[in-house]
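Sequence design from tokenized structure. All designs in this work follow the same two-part layout: the structure record, then the generated sequence. An example of the structure record is given first.
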């Protein structure tokens, strides 16, 4: 059973904790936790002064759950350490914690609630996109940080606390950046850096205590995890072991690509191309089955592409409108697209394009070579994305269209 963050009162009679550990379930923060449990000289506080908090995106690997439940939770329970598992229950949560749920608040935890509540996957497909791998990890800021911050504020009750993060010795810059979020109440602490432990040291320590590692913790579709070849190989092996997980990832990418061909999960490249190259037939077959079972939609996609202020030859930002025009089976939607294609192409209104992956787009406006420019097309994809546009989009579109005479006749 879950409780709202605003009702968080399970241990309300206890003093506020001095130390809060953000436990990301990965090798780094797990090693800190285990060392604190095993070696009292590694800490300067009592375990009843500690609260461990963990935010669930809803898309963690099953293997992480299994290792943590078998090896770590029993140790936490034996030591009576309080573990809070939290998640967002909806896309937007308030600073006060409305929309955040506490999945479990226990000093004897037995279960890891990796299913979360409103999952990052749900958020991404509803928006018809993927987690963005450029710049700040906004997916993490929202799916984890937004859930953790109000809960930490609630349990620490306005008292000063030490906020422990699992940055390892090679992550000093991340620690420096994190310390920029210190306040009168919060002081960031980074024990692995103090101990001089790199990731390998953390893994070795965990193995020495529980006989195994806990593996890399991440969302099953994390674009950062695809960043290098060896990580990719590891994830592909996990997909091979559980093709349904790989198929769900491909479904997310497939939808995002239909709405924006540049949205490949592997730094802009398409995950599906890499899986094909590696002949991952189990995952690809599972994806075909998932796709065939999905209700589909005919999407109307409009995009306004604006120039950079300091360099008008480069793209600065884009505004997008996605509208669902029709829903049905994949075959029905494809048939409508084909009919539209024949009828309207005859009038020179729409232009058909077949992508490298076989996907069809019917363009009403193609983007021009100079910014600002606009584009509009129709495409068929799984009916998972919701209508989405900025409140002012139609107004912007009308202005952009009027300023684009070469295409305005076909609006
Ligand atoms: S694991 Fe990856 S996808 Fe998931 S929240 Fe973190 S950065 Fe985003």
């Amino acid at each position: 059973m879950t409780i709202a963050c605003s009702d968080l009162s399970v241990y309300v009679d206890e003093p506020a904790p001095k130390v809060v550990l953000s436990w990301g379930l990965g090798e780094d923060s797990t090693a800190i936790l285990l060392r604190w449990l095993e070696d009292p000289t590694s800490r300067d506080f009592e375990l009843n002064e500690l609260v461990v908090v963990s935010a669930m995106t809803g898309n963690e690997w099953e293997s992480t759950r299994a290792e943590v439940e078998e090896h770590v939770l029993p140790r936490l329970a034996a030591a009576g350490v309080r573990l809070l598992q939290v998640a967002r229950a909806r896309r937007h949560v308030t600073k006060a914690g409305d929309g955040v749920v506490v999945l479990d608040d226990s000093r004897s935890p037995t279960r890891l609630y990796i299913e979360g509540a409103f999952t990052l996957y749900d958020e991404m497909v509803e928006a018809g996109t993927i987690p963005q791998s450029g710049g700040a990890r906004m997916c993490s800021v929202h799916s984890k940080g937004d859930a953790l911050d109000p809960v930490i504020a609630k349990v620490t009750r306005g008292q000063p606390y030490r906020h422990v993060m699992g940055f390892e010795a090679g992550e000093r810059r991340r620690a420096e950046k994190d310390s920029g979020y210190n306040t009168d109440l919060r002081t960031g602490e980074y024990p692995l850096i103090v101990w001089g432990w790199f990731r390998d040291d953390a893994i070795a320590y965990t193995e020495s205590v529980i006989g195994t590692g806990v593996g890399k913790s991440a969302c099953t579709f994390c674009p950062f995890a695809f960043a290098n070849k060896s990580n990719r190989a590891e994830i592909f092996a996990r997909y091979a072991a559980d093709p349904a997980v790989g198929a769900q990832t491909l479904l997310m990418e497939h939808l995002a690509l239909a709405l924006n061909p540049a949205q490949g999960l592997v730094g802009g490249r398409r995950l599906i191309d890499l899986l094909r190259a590696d002949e991952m037939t189990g995952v690809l077959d599972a994806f075909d089955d998932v796709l065939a079972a999905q209700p589909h939609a005919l999407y109307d996609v409009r995009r306004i592409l604006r120039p950079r202020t300091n360099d008008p030859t480069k793209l600065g930002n884009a505004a997008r409108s996605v509208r669902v025009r029709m829903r049905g089976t994949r075959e029905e939607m494809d048939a409508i697209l084909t009919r539209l294609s024949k009828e309207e192409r005859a009038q020179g209104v729409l232009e058909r394009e077949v992508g490298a992956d076989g996907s069809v787009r019917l363009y009403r406006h193609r983007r021009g070579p100079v910014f600002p420019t606009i584009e509009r097309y129709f495409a068929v994809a799984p009916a998972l994305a919701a209508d989405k546009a900025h409140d002012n989009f139609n107004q912007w579109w009308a202005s952009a269209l009027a300023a684009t005479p070469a295409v305005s006749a076909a609006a």
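The pocket of iron/sulfur cluster is lined by residues 57, 120, 131, 137, 139-140, 143, 218-219, 222, 224 (CB under 6 Å). We note this feature because it recurs in several other targets discussed in the main text.
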